[in-house]
Amino acid sequence: MLMRKNSVFIIIATVSLLFINSQRAQPQSPDVDNHRFELGGQFSVLNISTVRGILPPSPIVCITFPCLIPVPFERSRETEPGFGGRIGYNITNHFAIEAEVNYFPREQRLDGGREIQGLFGIKAGRRFEKVGVFGKIRPGFISTRTSAFRDRRDVACITIFPPPAACFEQTRKREMDLAVDIGGVIELYPTSRIIIRFDAGDTIIPFGQRSFIVPFPTITSGVIVTAPAETTHNFQGSAGVGFRF
Fold it and tell me: Residue 69 CA to chain centroid, in angstroms?
């Protein structure tokens, strides 16, 4: 975790220096002056942090609420493929603002899936004749399709922990969390209007509590566990094509 925090600080410092240098830029090239707007699309992959419960061999009977016996969790990662679009405006030859939306259609995880991501922020760096190198900071949101559980009125359940899934009615809902994308961008310019772009960075997501069903040896319906809130660091990379106009 310390290495991740240090990496984020290094990226932030790099982007800050690029922004300062952009203020000292020479007059813009004719390409940027004539074609300030950019519109493009990209394929993206998000290596997102996931959790699952590691349960004891038998249910725990709780006499009081809340039950103070914790359920351990195992954390892993899954790579989610997706696609999206981007629009930007070049304020100068070294500084731009941009907005991006991505959709990750898979729904295979216990703690969520089918993410919709929206980002808006700055891109600052150096543009040469055929290549550009930039840093980026883009806050936004990520909306995930997750499970929600409510008590079933037609079932009588005893108080055990973790609670059996049969005691609850499961629905699907969308939950929105903050997200911040910090990283770097490399652009190639085969012509004055066409952009080939590659992004890589850390997407920081402070997830709230997440509930899901996990299998249980003595309960056929499984049981419901709730993972605590946490802030995760998730690698995200993308490649796409854009056009200036």
Answer: 31
